[in-house]
């Protein structure tokens, strides 16, 4: 079923869940949501800008993977583990991400990881600022 703007209920719920999750959590390894908009059938999320993009992009790019030495890889794993521990043990109720992947881990200029994508469908558009 779609609402007045033509947005499917499942997409609207995913969009709202993402907003709710990211406005209630505060952790250095979880992406910051700066804003959102739903208008004329389009849904937008505005995140903090992550200079290096996704971990997948860095891992699978020839030049990027050379910069990803073992010390940086361990730093990324530790950051993701801290964020997941926070979501599972320090949030009430606990938050389960459901889709941790290299595409949903973003990296800043210092390779500090941020978990993103807390359930929004591909029809929602994300902007990074």
TrEMBL record:
**Coiled coil feature spans:** none
- Report the EC code(s) recorded for this entry: 2.7.11.1
Q: Does the keyword Transcription regulation apply?
A: no
Which species expresses this protein natively? Vanilla planifolia (Vanilla)
User: What reaction is this protein's catalytic activity?
Assistant: L-threonyl-[protein] + ATP = O-phospho-L-threonyl-[protein] + ADP + H(+); L-seryl-[protein] + ATP = O-phospho-L-seryl-[protein] + ADP + H(+)
Query: What are the leading ranks of the lineage?
Result: Eukaryota, Viridiplantae, Streptophyta, Embryophyta, Tracheophyta
Q: Which InterPro entries does this chain map to?
A: Kinase-like_dom_sf, Prot_kinase_dom, Ser-Thr/Tyr_kinase_cat_dom, Ser_Thr_Kinases_DiverseReg, Tyr_kinase_AS
This chain belongs to which protein, by name?
A: non-specific serine/threonine protein kinase
Class in the EC hierarchy, top level: transferase
């Amino acid at each position: 079923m779609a609402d007045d703007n033509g947005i499917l209920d499942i997409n609207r719920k995913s969009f709202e869940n993402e907003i709710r999750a990211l406005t209630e959590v505060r952790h250095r390894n979880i992406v910051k949501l700066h804003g959102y908009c739903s208008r004329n059938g389009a849904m937008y999320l505005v995140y903090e800008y992550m200079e290096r993009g996704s971990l997948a992009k860095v891992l699978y790019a020839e030049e990027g993977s050379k910069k990803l030495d073992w010390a940086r890889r361990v730093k990324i794993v530790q950051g993701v583990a801290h964020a997941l521990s926070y979501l599972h043990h320090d949030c009430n109720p606990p938050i389960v991400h459901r889709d941790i992947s290299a595409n949903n881990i973003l990296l800043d200029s210092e390779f500090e990881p941020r978990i993103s994508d807390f359930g929004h469908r591909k029809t929602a558009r994300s902007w990074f600022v």
